[in-house]
Amino acid sequence: MKKLLVALPLLICGLANAQEKPLDMKMDFEDYNPPSSLVVPEHRIKRAKFPFIDIHNHYGSMNTADLSERVKFMDELNMGVMVNLSGRGFRSSGDHLEKSFENIKKQYPNRFLLFTNIDFEDIDNPAWAGRMTKQLEEDVKRGAKGLKIYKSLGIRNKDKNGNWLAIDDPRIDPVWAKCGELGIPVLIHSADPKQFWDPIDNQNERWLELKLHPNRRYDSTFSSWETIIEQQHNVFKKHTKTKFINAHLGWYGSDLKKLGELMDQFPNMYTEIGAVIAELGRQPRAAKAFLTKYQNRVLFGKDSWVPDEYETYFRVLETEDEYFLYHKRYHAFWRMYGLGLSDEVLKKIYYKNAMSLIPSIDKTLFPK
User: Fold this and answer.
1) Number of domains making up the chain
2) Per residue in 126-136, pLDDT tens?
3) pLDDT score recorded for residue 89
């Protein structure tokens, strides 16, 4: 009885507090996002340490656009040159590529580069390869600096029989060979993150992204991730005289050991960091070692024009900051760490490697 009398006030106090601040244990995963209590140095970098070339961007319509506003933001970021990979613009009427070249020449001829594109729709036509290689020759004469291959090749493009068009289909061989002959790089995006093929369950690291964007899921009606990646590698292996830029770290950003093996196996393969900086930022020691070892073959890319998001890239590459947020939680619910790359490595990733692949880039925009 005595113990009960002692405990009773505590019980009453507890009930009172519970009434004042009811404990709500019901919360969805996507709502749980507490701020960090960690107090560490922060270096918010709005401007890159060195001028850089964004090798992977998509401007949209460039044939009539006023480019002055874009250049203003580029100058603030210290972006010397932007490469627009959507040069041909198949959905646009008229000669989109030619009009884009004219528009750039009138406004900022040394700040924007265009890659051309090819259409696989008529690949069953025996004349297709000849038509595409001729188009490449003409586009390069007009100023195209490379070829961009979209992920639709291997995922959505089909032949007349309804079969998936393989990346290593021999009918495309003349295109790859022509790029090598013309001395232009091929920036190729094949597949997507492997998790987009995996079951959407509590073992899928991209669960939140797939919940918010269910259209990104590839079910069993599509070719497997492994098949698409293998087809891409077959092309690298076969066309050794052509230089390929494997977009998005080839989707091996979470397995840098494997990516390094591929770099060793395919000396004609380069890569870029567009939309995968979060993979590097969560493994700073391994990522720094990888980028240092392959410093001559990694390029800077972003993949989308959102000026505020470049800060994450600069911070990961340049600082040694700890435990900071990525700009899209559904891409990365984990925190980032800075790699603290040396100036020599930074210069190569920011602009020197792109200039080696595209020698016609205006060298006066960049330090030696």
Assistant:
1) 1
2) 999 999 999 99
3) 64
- Identify the bridge partners of residue 239 per DSSP, sorted by sequence position: none
SS3 299: strand
What order do you get walking across the sheet with 52-57 strand by strand?
A: 52-57, 79-84, 112-114
In a domain, 180, yes or no: yes
Tokens linked to 269: 């393969």
Q: Is residue 351 part of a domain?
A: yes
Cβ-based burial of 352 (10 A; exposed 0-12, middle 13-18, buried ≥19): buried
The answer to whether residue 28 sits within a structural domain is no
What is the mean pLDDT of the segment spanning 307-329? 96
Distance from C-alpha of 272 to C-alpha of 56, rounded to nearest angstrom: 8
The Cα 299–Cα 129 span in angstroms is 30
Residue 8 — very low, low, confident or very high, per pLDDT cuts 50/70/90?
very low
The range of the structural domain enclosing residue 303 comes to 40-365
**Do the beta carbons of residue 365 and residue 51 sit within 8 Å?**
yes
In a domain, 187, yes or no: yes
Cα distances (angstroms) measured from residue 318 to each of 308, 340, 346, 349? 16, 5, 8, 11
DSSP string for residues in 212-274: H-GGG---TTSPPHHHHHHHHHHHHHH-TTS-EEEGGGGG-TT-HHHHHHHHHH-TTEEEE-T
* Alpha-carbon dihedral 53, 56, 60, 62, rounded to 10 degrees: 40
Rounded to whole angstroms, the Cα distance separating 89 from 192 reads 22
**Measured distance CA(138)–CA(3) in Å, rounded:** 94
Q: What are the pLDDT digits (tens) for 20-52?
A: 556 566 788 778 888 889 899 899 999 999 999
CATH number of the domain at 255, please. 3.20.20.140
State the pTM of this model: 0.92
Chain CA centroid to CA 312, Å: 13
Q: What does the alpha-carbon distance between residue 207 and residue 201 come to, in Å, rounded to a whole number?
A: 7
Residue 26, pLDDT score: 78
